[in-house]
């Protein structure tokens, strides 16, 4: 008797024969399925696998992402290859670099330092500190995609699950689908966060603030690994990266609306997620689950990918513009602060620009997961715009653009940085004209002082 059949009989008892017969009547070959899936032949090991799956489903609950799974996998991935605790010397090097960076930035921007305590982190510490932000970022998308999947597959699911099928709590098929989706998202998020822990330098590398209360931090091992093989000394590389981290942290600390603006744009994208139900149902009917090559081809063909609507495209454009503006400001301010002190400033600046534009494997994982690429596609255009604003209005005028979201430059400004000042002046004049018109309608004199 095959191992899978022994486990089914142990789990289902008298219902095993009926379950096996139903599988065969539906065209499924349990032997072929077990072989294709790579399941072990040992009944004890197979029983353990099924027990882990049941525990996984039970732990998913109602969350669109299984966060326990995400956390555990992220920690495992972060520890891959070794992640020793920082030595006292490593911690001192990072904190000294962040301290010097703050002093240099005082001469480059009017935004004051963050009030958060600077940190030197291991990769595991980065995961623990930033995973709550991934929850905020991915849950709206995961929830919408889960609902869309259940809606698309609703007609293909049976009304009730077989009695005693061994699933926790006798859950219904739709609930099972949600829990499976939760587990898949948990694995994806955990894998991506754990991989990012090997790539990032601090808390602001992807353009989004990963801490509720911004504070500068560097992952010491990643900074040292990045510096290996470069012409610049490791101390200079560390100082340059500390400047970038401290500059971004200043921005997210003293522009209180910016974090909410970025996250609300992600949520606006998530609300519009739809799935082509006909295409999905056709895939379910046509794919032979025992044919691993065909299944892989169907999955990679975009059958389960969300369709981008016009509203989502607009949200993505707003997000890309905002990310570019954040990255461009950090790029410009960092270069201004570093040039008088670091001989390799321009080379390091260009290297970071290319790194951010290309993205890494973890960022691509998130892009595949939720359809969002957290990359500033127009970084160079944004840096040119901030440089132009600085030439026209000085550092104070440049930083004042962040005073209100309505002042945020647009894609048109990225297209034509030289024309930004003229367009801004026109917009101010138009706003003043509207104020005068409203004052006339309301019977007020806009030029009159306060009445006694």
Overall description:
- By secondary structure, the chain is mostly helical.
- It has helices at residues 3-12, 16-25, 30-37, 43-60, 67-79, 88-105, 123-153, 173-196, 220-227, 234-254, 256-271, 277-286, 292-300, 310-338, 345-358, 361-370, 379-400, 411-415, 420-442; strands at residues 119-121, 217-219.
- A two-stranded parallel sheet has the order 1-2.
- It is globular, with a radius of gyration of 27 Å.
- Keywords: Hydrolase, Metalloprotease, Protease.
Keyphrases for this structure?
452 residues; mainly alpha; two-stranded parallel ribbon; 2 strands; 1% strand
Compose a concise summary of this entry.
InterPro entries: Zinicin_2, Zinicin_2_N. This protein is 66% helix and 1% strand.
Give the helix tally. 19
Coarse structural class = mainly alpha
Total count of strands: 2
Runs with pLDDT <50, length 5+? 161-169
What best-fitting shape do the alpha-carbon axes yield? globular
Task: Report the end-to-end length measured between terminal Cα atoms.
Answer: 98 Å
Layout of helices and strands, plus pairs?
Elements: H1 3-12, H2 16-25, H3 30-37, H4 43-60, H5 67-79, H6 88-105, E1 119-121, H7 123-153, H8 173-196, E2 217-219, H9 220-227, H10 234-254, H11 256-271, H12 277-286, H13 292-300, H14 310-338, H15 345-358, H16 361-370, H17 379-400, H18 411-415, H19 420-442
Parallel strand pairs: 1-2
